[in-house]
Amino acid sequence: MWSDDEEQGTEPVEATWEEHSQFYRSFSRFMSVSEHDRREMVRVFFIEQDVPVLESSDIDFVPTNMLSGFFLHTHKAEVKMPSGEVDKPVIDDNHDGTVSIRYEPKEEGIHELAVKYNGEHVQGSPFKFHVDSISSGYVTAYGPGLVHGVTGEPAQFIISTKGAGAGGLQMAVEGPSKADITYHDNKDGTVSVSYLPTAPGEYKISVRFGDKHIKGSPYFAKITGEGRKRNQISVGSCSEVTLPGVISDNDLRSLNASIQAPSGLEEPCFLKRMPTGNIGISFTPREIGEHTVSVKRLGKHIANSPFKVNVCEREVGDAKKVIVTGNALKEGKTHQDNVFSIDTRNAGYGGLSLSIEGPSKAEIQCTDKDDGTLNIAYKPTEPGYYIVNLKFADHHVTGSPFTVKVSGEGTNRQREKIQRQREAVPITEVGSQCKLTFKMPGITSFDLSATVTSPGGVSEDAEIQEIEDGLYAVHFIPKELGVHTVSVKYKQIHIPGSPFQFTVGPLKDTGAHLVKAGGPGLEHGEQGVPAEFNVWTREAGGGTLAISVEGPSKAEIEFKDRKDGSCDVSYVVSEPGDYRIGLKFNDRHIPDSPFKVYISPAMGEAHKLEVAQFPTGCVQADKPAQFMVRKNGAKGELDAKVVAPSNNEDDCFIQLIDQDQYSVRFYPRENGIHAIHVKFNGVHIPGSPYRIKVGKDDVDPAAVHASGKGLGDVKTGEKTDLIIDTCNAGAGTLAVTVDGPAKVAMDCTEVEEGYKVRYTPLLPGHYYMTIKYNQMHIVGSPFKINCTGESLAEAGGQETSSVIVETVAKVSKGGNRTGVILPIFKSDASKIQSKGMGLKKAYMGKQNQFTINAGDAGNNILFVGIYGPKGPCDEVFIKHTGRNQYTVNYLVRERGDYILLVKWGDDHIPGSPFKVEV
């Protein structure tokens, strides 16, 4: 065995046993050998039990069990030079949790520095920097602010003008947000520059001297928004106009209205009942002049529509006339209300929207004084810089966005983050074996069921296999290309994440909005016990998945890749309290992230409790239901509450039946899936919260589909719509949310096949439309919508618009058709094979048989009919034996010639109709 001195170019020296041996104990498997990048000794481990007892110290021995040691390179860095060659910088461990990177460039031009930790790029990596060969007499710039930064934190760099002579210095920072620039002359020929970016993205920094760019200018800095938290409120202020004519309440629900400005901008507007009994509209005036209001029922104008409305100058919302007062827009304090006032009395009509972004999600309260003025109070929990966007009628008020420096004590929340690269899975082909895996520990597979619906609308049961304890896989073989819907249910209730989108063939879209996550670890957990959840990235393509856990204590996060586009994540925290779990894919939050999770104290006595006689199936609304809880000797207080789909909470009635048993009675008031929280001494008992279906209506988000131009490419200032088909999905709560560069005017009206949503975007960019049915995403939600065109409002942080509708059950579609809608079948009857004596000859009073093989004929319905001399035969029995194979038996009681018809959907199979002699 040799030491590692040969790496230094010195003469190799034989290693000694004493230098390189050490005892091996089993716990060292769990220890991190190298915390920072440094030279490590080669080790040979031997197990204590295998060391013989030595009589004399001069007797050698050879261990019977050898284990080789290893260490991790945790920090790695490399520089890509302009020539394309890669160079290694020097990494110095500062022994304080940080490292310094030193590099001596050998070429002039743009270099790329990649910094990795445990094989993953650190935030902002790879970094770009410019190297020039100027020694003196020219203006140069250097510093981290020219390369990278974080929103809400000052980015700094230095400009050196030593020996450059006379000339004016000019600086500009362009990017996704306004960035305040400050500078300080150091009186030594250098200037320190600082700018404060308020939104993530790429910023262009121009430095000019004597009207010419200095060498390397413009610089491009990558600003990330990691760890920033946003909160927003909106206060509506609309102009109201009464329209002639009396409309009943039933008619009002079937009407929709839109208003067109003189410039052609058309937006949906809201209809409301006025005190006079007439209908009126609410809208935000954006222009002076005559507007046209169209009120339609099922696409046709009502009487007197379109109406003319004249808007005068004082009614148009003007953000410049909004007066904002208060020191809270300059500085604030943590853990207290910081108040400022807004006066919109002279600013016309317009909605007010406020968003606050910073190190914590600041709680916002709005007090409307009903006279055009209001007070806004925000309460941050962490110190640092906050960005306040304040817009009126979709334009920034004077001074917005405001940068607020918040001081004070933080909450000492600790954050742990891991990053993993996700590879894109191979394209799935028609006819191949498809698999979707999920982990649900502690359940029985008997209660699991799965169905797969093809793009053509054909639903089939899918097979579920238990791969290992708690890990399940849904298997199916697709028969066509396109997006399939996979529904997975446990005790007739969709599991978290279901219904799933599963694309057969090339992916139409990729990105964070197509990542799904679900599992108990995103809902609740227990201190010191691993909390688990699933993440499905298959539909999103390849990218980087970042998982962060933030709360009162640091989390230990474990990640297991299932190599099929899904993964299993578990985390353990040592302190109870509120935690936030952030899931980002390619630096963008996935839907519903960050997740709020309450980690309860250690279960203690609560683990002894068990539930009995829990209602099976579904219970009825507005009728009491109950179950039993056995204490099994535990000492403490029992409490319970029921949480409805609308998030309304109600206490349960608990009654002591005997010394060790309680009756828990609850009274659900809504249809839908309720959660029943049962706690003992403030801690969830095993299995809590329990989910139960209330009501007979089988609300199924997997049956809801969205389509239309409004989900594709749209243009600013143009009203666009989409149809949400709720036929056969039951009655539920439809919630549509649009998140994008600006708020959108949006409404939702009932149509025959479901509901029509209309909206008008005002800013170009990407919008994400979330469609939920009874709080569950429909397949494809959120939808990514690309908007182009001119800016009709001012940008300033992401803004959210939403509309919620209580739907009615729909079962018809188009014309006067009623009942169930048949799916669109794709089949070919000519590929069906039939055989058996029963196709030619039959015997009286006996079972006559033949078989049908439709395995290659696609999907459809088999129809068999037999007609004889005196009418139909006595009985026909069709049995499906699997994979579109059928056995047909029939019984006849009269002699003569019979006609046998066999159809696959609307088409006869080859040979049909058959002539049968009896």
From TrEMBL:
Gene Ontology CC annotations of this record: cytoskeleton
Keywords: Actin-binding, Cytoplasm, Cytoskeleton, Repeat
Short name of any one Pfam family annotated for the protein: Filamin
SUPFAM superfamilies noted in UniProt: E set domains
Presence of keyword Cytoplasm: yes
Cytoplasm listed as a keyword: yes
Compartmental location: Cytoplasm, Cytoskeleton
Gene Ontology molecular function terms on file: actin filament binding
PROSITE patterns named among the record's database cross-references: FILAMIN_REPEAT
Xref: InterPro entries: Filamin (IPR044801), Filamin/ABP280_repeat-like (IPR017868), Filamin/ABP280_rpt (IPR001298), Ig-like_fold (IPR013783), Ig_E-set (IPR014756)
GO BP annotation list: actin cytoskeleton organization
SMART domains per UniProt: IG_FLMN
Domain of life: Eukaryota
Gene3D superfamilies xrefs: Immunoglobulins
Ranges for the Filamin repeats: 76-131, 131-223, 221-311, 314-406, 404-504, 507-599, 601-694, 696-787, 824-918
Family: Belongs to the filamin family.
PANTHER family (alphabetical): FILAMIN-A, JITTERBUG, ISOFORM N
Name this polypeptide is given: Filamin-A
